[in-house]
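Here is one chain, start to finish.
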Amino acid sequence: MIQPQFPITRLRRMRYNSTFRELVSETTISTNDLVMPLFVTFGGKVKHEIISMPGQYRLSVDELVLKCKALWQKKIKAVLLFGIPEEKDEHGHVAASEHGIVQEALRAVKAEIPGMVLIADVCNCEYTTHGHCGTIVNGDVDNDSTLATLAAQAVSLAKAGADVIAPSDMMDGRVKIIRQALDNNGFYKIPILAYSAKFASAFYGPFREAADSAPAFGDRRSYQMDFRNGNEAMREIEHDIAEGADMIMVKPGLAYLDLVARAKTIFNIPVAVYNVSGEYAMVKAAAQNGWIDEKRIVMESMFAFKRAGADLILTYWAELVADILNGEK
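Its structure:
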């Protein structure tokens, strides 16, 4: 389409006035788009700040409930839960315990805030003694034996009150096995948010401190994706959808917006993006040194996620963003 040229066309006309800018803005964001990741640990009245993630905490169940109540008041309607257990084992079986830390948290939050959407991360890295995402055979994670553990964990979390199951392990076939297990146990209404394009990324560093999930040996590149591969990411997403994923995720966020846009255009299902711990920590560090304006950087990033096509944004800044959207900051 050919448009008239300057001076007939002046694109700045809609920028001179703040009201015009609001009227013609192409992208919107609301608290309905936000998911707050939270870390829950055993004990009572526990609120331990995560050193590499200023303003984020490991919370005991009682403190987690209080945090969720505060988030609900700010119109944040969904949280993603990660657990730090008292004990670990070689296979991560503890993750499927009826009285596991996330299971206890799910019951407690659901009792107090029944309307909040509780998304349960499904993976073994926080629950294994070696820090990898499944059972180790011959020095590497064995894909197929890990599937049974993931399915058992998913069913246990659904029984405890999870509204969404979110497998983040990157095993082949996990969505199919989890879907079958949920359906066989009567949880056919529970959707799956699959971490479909999860990359082996250096941006996860602070999370591993937060969740005590750093691998004791090697790395996760044999199961998490190679960050050089965009076409492979689309194949991963396609496979997960075929296996029963209701929503998919791209992780990390800012360095992978091209894949968020591609996924939304190609598959046109709900797409989530995870604004991960390293992205958070870098901005926090620069802001604390007075080098950047944290609020402006954060909101620019949120609109970038939405502009790329994300429907859900998982971000440690959810509370700050909600305050800004609600006119409180």
